[in-house]
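TEACHING EXERCISE
Course module: macromolecular assemblies
Task: Read the component lines below, then compare them to the predicted structure of the full complex.
Student: A.B.
Group: 4
Components provided:
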Amino acid sequence: MNGKYEAGLGKRRANYTPLSPVSLIRRTARVHPDHAAVHYGGVSRSWSETYARCASLAAALRSRGAGSESTVAALLPNTPAAVEMAFGVPMSGAVLNMINTRLDAAGVAFILDHGEAEFFVVDSGLAEIAAEALSLAAVQPVIVYVHDPAAPGEELEGALEYETLLAEADPMRDADMAPGDEWDAIALNYTSGTTGNPKGVVYHHRGAYLNALANAVEWTLPHHPRYLWTLPMFHCNGWCFPWTVAAMAGTNICLRAPTAENILAAIGASAVTHLCGAPIVLNMATTEAENRGIALDSPVEVMTAGAAPPAAVLKRAEAVGFRITHVYGLTEVYGPAAICAWKPDWDELPATERAALKARQGVNYTVLEELSVRDPETLEPVEPDGERMGEVMFRGNVVMKGYLKNGPATEEAFAGGHFRSGDLAVMHPDGYIQLKDRSKDIIITGGENVSSIEVEGVIYLHPAVSEAAVVAAPDERWGETPAAFVELKEGCTATASELIAFCRERLAHFKCPRLVVFRDLPKTSTGKIQKFVVRQWAAEIDGEERRLASG
Amino acid sequence: MNGKYEAGLGKRRANYTPLSPVSLIRRTARVHPDHAAVHYGGVSRSWSETYARCASLAAALRSRGAGSESTVAALLPNTPAAVEMAFGVPMSGAVLNMINTRLDAAGVAFILDHGEAEFFVVDSGLAEIAAEALSLAAVQPVIVYVHDPAAPGEELEGALEYETLLAEADPMRDADMAPGDEWDAIALNYTSGTTGNPKGVVYHHRGAYLNALANAVEWTLPHHPRYLWTLPMFHCNGWCFPWTVAAMAGTNICLRAPTAENILAAIGASAVTHLCGAPIVLNMATTEAENRGIALDSPVEVMTAGAAPPAAVLKRAEAVGFRITHVYGLTEVYGPAAICAWKPDWDELPATERAALKARQGVNYTVLEELSVRDPETLEPVEPDGERMGEVMFRGNVVMKGYLKNGPATEEAFAGGHFRSGDLAVMHPDGYIQLKDRSKDIIITGGENVSSIEVEGVIYLHPAVSEAAVVAAPDERWGETPAAFVELKEGCTATASELIAFCRERLAHFKCPRLVVFRDLPKTSTGKIQKFVVRQWAAEIDGEERRLASG
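Instructor-supplied answer key:
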């Protein structure tokens, strides 16, 4: 520190601020105070109003003891309260834990307990499942009830009204807002891993800030985008888009239920310019538009991830007026961290070639240091020949801090100096990656990750089941659906519909198999089920067999 | 560090990389290897070629001993070598010191010595002044000679050819590239302060990275912009645009001499989409287009700073096809750090109102934490009434580390927790700032800062001069020009042209007064010259008086 380029040239208040998304809303509230921040049904609030509400939320949380080790859990659809959580909680210094609203009560309870929730913010329409989760959970968080007239629900015992909480304290002053360190945790997002218990992915302020800006850079967002919330904000904090929309002084068009009808209506009524979602959302909206003979007044940019939309869907969607950008990521990398960066030359190619190029997951986001495909043993990059498979690995500032209270999983994920995604891919000669097989044990249905191992665990509970393998079967509506291949115990019987009902009693519905096939399972010499064979079966299931399997 | 959100969740290779512009070119070289990075005359090089050349430069510098305390000085016009400096030097870990090519030899020598230059990269067209500077300087840097056929010059004694240097070593491997810490110095830029000796502003990798991305976000840059280099790269590292253009995989259209003719020719020949420059550049290009009856084929975005273009110029420029964005900054804040963020509503206003709004310096860049106007004594923000004056202050991650080897100036600039610009402004009720008086002692002529105190110092050397005050006079061509008001010693005589010639022998030409007026100077009771009165005189100088003063 004695060299001429260091001496007297250290960090100080004037030249160093911890990177945080809190800065983004603060600036927009000052520069564009009257610009609409949120639209939701009849509610419309400006950026200055939204900022004041977030600052009030922060002050109330702080006065009730929230600090950097506090978890604020939230079970909310894409309402204005969810947008406010994305800022108010980080301002207070606490950690935001948006919980998947499609989980069952046991799943929610596990998360409340594992995250040690001190606050639990619940939408009225989700009060029932929240109450059940609270009855199962050991923690006793402060319960905050967000009353939405669009979805009235039962009152929650001992709950505080959200608006009452906001009125409890004067808005927090700018200078009091967290973080003290940009490495401080900002969010906790549970992911279904390949084991039954979800893992809690911890984000920091630095990564959230950088990915928020990166979304704007990669997508070349204009100022004042009108952003429709079809992607749930509980997925990787809405891929960091609450923060991106604030940075660009856009408007959050909130949507409680992203049905095809609602999406099309919102696009028309709110002059939507951008939206994100799983391919199923694109597919649904496209089909609805076609059925109603609607073409969009002006193009809507769609960022989609999960699986690549097939050529036919791309073509149809573009005909309606959607312009598709394909991104890729995981909860562990703040949502999208890779993008199929489009090259102007490709515009000239025939539609099928364009679709094949767009189906690739592509290259690292600008703020991600490195996206690579490597041999999982040696960590050597695979040959970029489009054929050799390896594991997708991420390295850089938009990779999580690690898994909460799970040292072994964190160390395993980071072993070798990269985040190991578990996804298998090839590297093409032009440096673009393409997924070839997702982590073997994950099924993506309607944009949600389902752990096949978790589902198998439930099926094994059925007294008639001897062995079971759950894999992804293609599904026109959901992209994929869990399919169970089951060997029954000698002398036992069960039907497909019986097993499906059995699962629905014990699992969130989206996790339950929609297909159950009874068949002897292929095994290795050591008795291990050969899942690749089962996957092949699932890929081919059709016609009468499919009908039978649906129960 | 024992809380659940810290334990086992520290920084590691997988999730932390020091922010640096080096990452930006590395990614673009991989993702868009064949896209043109630079065009210059007959030379065109792709991003992969440019990256390889930068990595070779870095390796050669490193093998010759460059490290984090090494200064690489460069006297270069906007050629491809200047673009390569912006990456090759930081990759090596050394600090890039781009020197103003309009300085005189003594000015260059001062900088070489003060920065302790270990390398000095010189364009052939600037060899003469470099040789003179070297003869005056105490340091004995390694001299690197960039031969440009467009401007052949004398050989420099003992100089190494740039291409020979590049060939000396294999390109540096990615893993060996600096920085180790994002706070490491990346660049050194000398600014004329209010005292005679320039101050060396030190930038860090973190700020350079953030402002590079911010330029893209603020200007909503598309991918692959075609960026014309009219702004000298020695001004705040070209406002960080070498790094921005790399981030967006654009093309640097280099231009040795940004004359009106060359600018218009380049726009036509190279399909330029974006350029930056002082208002004089805009004015020149507009006038040239008008004279030749040219309208641009497609609009060119122009980012301009320094002084607001008057309404008439704005209108004429827009008629030709230029779209103007007004930014504001100083060397100490990486170039532009404020922007007159445009509001869609304003498009509807009459032209003069629009020009008045656009003339304001505006609001903080997204990556700048705070832009404020404060009482310089109490540091209290002034009333946002558009009338009360205060000092413009900056705070955040795009504020310099400080001044090199100048503790007192650094402490003074940062006193109170903000960078104090010395510029005077008002804050409008809508939160936009407007400069009312620049730092009293700086004159901006043709986009260059001139210290009035430095010029006065030279005038005082003249034996006939008793007292002198140098202030800005309005100038149609240069925006402002230095005007000297001089009181002669009793019984002495001198003419305007004599004094101008006297200055030209001792100062870079752009710093010399173009007007000299002989007159008794107004003084306070304690004998201090009342500069505000002199400024008023200069504002009003006209007609016959102006002709006389021109010598």
